[in-house]
Amino acid sequence: MAIAASHETLTLDDQMRALGSRARAAAAVLAKASTAQKNDALLAAAASLRAQLPALLEANHQDVADARAKALDAALIDRLTIDEKRVAAMAKGLEEIAALADPVGRLDADWTRPNGLIIQRVRVPLGVIGIIYESRPNVTADAGGLCLKSGNAVILRGGSESARSSAAILACLSEGLESVGLPTAAIQSVPSQDRAAVGIMLRMDDAIDVIIPRGGKSLIERVSTESRIPVLKHLDGICHTYIHAAANLAKTRAVVVNAKMRRTGVCGATETLLIDRAVLATHLKPLLDDLITAGCAIRGDAEIQSLDSRVTAATEQDWSTEYLAPILSVRVVDGVEAAITHIGYYGSHHTEAIITEDVAAAEAFLAGIDSAIVMVNASTQFADGGEFGMGAEIGISTGKLHARGPVGVAELTSYKYLVRGNGQVRP
Amino acid sequence: MAIAASHETLTLDDQMRALGSRARAAAAVLAKASTAQKNDALLAAAASLRAQLPALLEANHQDVADARAKALDAALIDRLTIDEKRVAAMAKGLEEIAALADPVGRLDADWTRPNGLIIQRVRVPLGVIGIIYESRPNVTADAGGLCLKSGNAVILRGGSESARSSAAILACLSEGLESVGLPTAAIQSVPSQDRAAVGIMLRMDDAIDVIIPRGGKSLIERVSTESRIPVLKHLDGICHTYIHAAANLAKTRAVVVNAKMRRTGVCGATETLLIDRAVLATHLKPLLDDLITAGCAIRGDAEIQSLDSRVTAATEQDWSTEYLAPILSVRVVDGVEAAITHIGYYGSHHTEAIITEDVAAAEAFLAGIDSAIVMVNASTQFADGGEFGMGAEIGISTGKLHARGPVGVAELTSYKYLVRGNGQVRP
C-alpha cells in the first residue's frame, strides 16, 4: 500500500502515533461538519464504490486467491469474498446511512434552574473510534459510513486476509470525503498488518476514545484484556426461545423455525430452545418435525432424547455454545422462573424470547431476563438495528455501559451540557 | 471486623469470590425492589446514622488517632474526620436520595414497527458496581445510597485509614436494608485492607459490571490500567474561565472570584483564567485585586507578570495543574479560538466557562469546547449534580462513554429493549 511505502523509514510506533494525531485533528473537523456535507460524502462514496467495481473485484480476487493458497477455511473465504451483489449492498448501505437522521446536535433535554441558569444536554460525537475486525471487507464500508454520519473519525484495523479489498473500499470512502472537502484522515486504516499494530492501538488512549471489536471470542477477549481504552463489546449471541405452558402451537411453530433457521450465522439466531414440561406432549414433536425438515440437527437433554430418537445428546458445553449453524440445543424446563434461571446462567445477555398467550408469564419473563433485548411472541432474528427502525448498526452490544442492544449512529455519540447564565454565582 | 474473622481460613481470592457471588445475588433482588422499599431502607439507614452517632464518632476517633500516629498529612486527616455535623449531612444526604425519582423502570422511548412489533426501551440497574475510594468516610454513605436507589448492588473498597469509620457507617446502611427485608449483601465492603484486594476486584468481571474510582490521579491510573471491567472515570477538574473581549466587568468580577475561591478544593473550581488581550487594560487589575484580597495567589505568563508585580511566574506545568488550592494561573489569549485551543491542549474536559455579552462568541465557545460542561456567564462551581437539579451525584465523569458530567442515580442505570409481538417472524 502507498501509505506503508511512504512511511518505511518510520517505526510502527511512530506511524501509529502519526495516524492517531491525524485522526484527532480530523475528528475536530468532523464534529463541526454539517449534515449535508456528511451526507454528500456518503453518497459520493457510494457512487465511487459502484464506479470502482472492477478494481474492487480485482483486489478481492487477489485476497481470495491468497486465502485459498494458504488453505484458510471455507467459512472465512466466504466471508472474505465480495461479488457485484455485495458491492451493490455496500453502496446501498452508505446511501441508507445518508438517509438517517443526524444524531449530532440533537437536544436530549433542556430545563431552567430556579437561579435562571438554562441547561441543555446535546449530543456530540464520541471523537475517534477504533474498530478492530476480521475478514469481512464490507465492515470497512459499514463502519466507515456509520462513524462518518455520527461525526466521528475512525481508525480501522481489518484482518490481514482482506487487506487489498479493504484498501480498495477505503479509497472509495476517501474519494467521498475529498469530494466535499472533509479530511481523508476521518477514515483511516492502520498502516501495517503486523499484529503488534493492534497492541499499539489498544494503548493509544490519548488518540482513541472507544474501541469496538467485531469478531470472534478470542479477538474480543484479547481486546478486553489489553485495552486501556473503553471497549464497546459485541459478544456472542447465545439466544434462547422459551416455549411457555400457554404457548399457541401455530405461533410457536412459525416463530421457532424462523428464530433458528432463517439465517443460522447471525448473532440473533436462537441457539437453545427451552420447552415447558406442560407442553412437551403437544408441542415438541411438531417443532422437531419442522426443524429437522428444515435441516436442523437437534441436541437434547436426557428427557428430550428419550422422547425422540432423532435427538442426539447435548453436553454441558452445548448450553453455552453459539453454534452459528443449523444445530439447536433443546431442554425441558419447569416454568418461567426455571427458564429465567437457565438463561441467566448459560446465556450471553443478547436476545431471548418467550412464546406465550399468558400476559402474566410474558411480563415475568420481560422483567426477569437480564438481556439487551427481551421478546414476547416474536423471532429472536428481529434483534437488529434495521428491524428496530434505528437504521444500520455496527453490531449488538451485550455490555450494559453506554450502549446496549443495537449500536447505530445515535449510540456512536456522547453528550455535553451547555449552561447559559447571566452572571450567576454559586452561594 | 466480624466478616474477616469468620473467613480467616479462606484465601483472599476465595473471600472476594464469595463477596462477588453475594453481590450478584443481591443485585437480582435489588433490581426488582419497589421504589417504596428502597426509599424506606434509605430513610431507616439515615435514622440509624443519627442514632449511632456516638459509635460513629468513636470509630472515627480511632481512625483519626491512628492517622495522626502515622503522621499522615493534614489534608488527609481533614477529609477523614467526621463530626456531628458531617454525620447529620450524611443522614440528610440519604433522605435526599430517597426523595429523588426512581430511575429504574422509566420508559425512555417506545414505538411500534410496521409489522406490529411494539418496542420499548426501559431503564434497568447496571447490576453490581465496584467503588474504590480513598479516605473520605462519607463516600460510604453517599455511594451506598446512590447505588441502592438505582437498584444496584455495590462493593465498596475505601481507604485503610477510614476502615473503622466506614465499617460503622456500613452497619447503619445494613440496618436500613434489613429493616425492609432487602439483602445486606446489596452494600458490602471488601473483607481486607490488603492492596491485593483491589487487584482482585479489578479482575472480577463476572461479578462486577462497572468500576468507579474516586480519588487522586494515581488511583485512577492504576484502575484504568489494571481493570478488566469498564471504568467510569472521574479525572481532574482543570477548569477554565475565559474572559472574552465583550465581558461585562461587574459580572466578570463576581463570577471569577466565585469560580476560583468559593471552595478551592472541589473539582469544579476554576484553575486557569484566560483573559482576552482586548480587556487586559480594563479587566485585569480589578480581577487580580479581588482575587488577591480573597487570598488567592496568582501565577501568570510573562505578559501578566509584566503588568502586575504581585504575579509570580507560571511554568508550563501550571497550565495542566489542578491546584485544589487558592492558586490561579492566568494567561493572555487572543480571541475565542485561541482560548479553545489552550483549553483543548491543557484541560481535562471537565467544565469551562466564557464570560461575554457577545452571543456569537458565546455560541462559538459552546460549540468548540469538548468538555462535559460548557458555561456562559456563570461560575464553574455550578458543575454539580445537585446544582443541575439532578440530585446527589457520585462525581463528575470526564469520560465520554456512558455518562458525561454529573453521575447521579439516572446515570447509574442501563436500559433494555422489551419487544412485544403476536407471532411475527422475520422475512
Question: Can you say what the CATH homologous superfamily of the largest domain in chain A is?
Answer: Aldehyde Dehydrogenase, Chain A, domain 1
Question: What quaternary form is this?
Answer: homodimer
Fraction in beta strands of chain A:
15-25%
Quote the average pLDDT of chain A: 94
Structural class estimated from helices and strands of chain A: alpha/beta
Q: Could you tell me the CATH topology label of the largest domain in chain A.
A: Aldehyde Dehydrogenase, Chain A, domain 1
Biggest β-sheet: strands ordered side by side in the sheet of chain A: 10-9-11-8-7-12-13
Number of strands of chain A: 16
Span between termini of chain A:
61 Å
CATH architecture grouping of the largest domain in chain A: 3-Layer(aba) Sandwich
State the name of the first-level CATH class of the largest domain in chain A.
Alpha Beta
Shape of chain A: globular
Count of domains of chain A: 2
**Low-pLDDT stretches of chain A:** 1-5
Largest interface (CB within 8 Å) is between: A-B, 65 and 65 residues
Give the fraction of residues assigned to helices of chain A.
40-55%
Tally of helical segments of chain A: 15
Biggest pleated-sheet summary of chain A: 7 strands, parallel
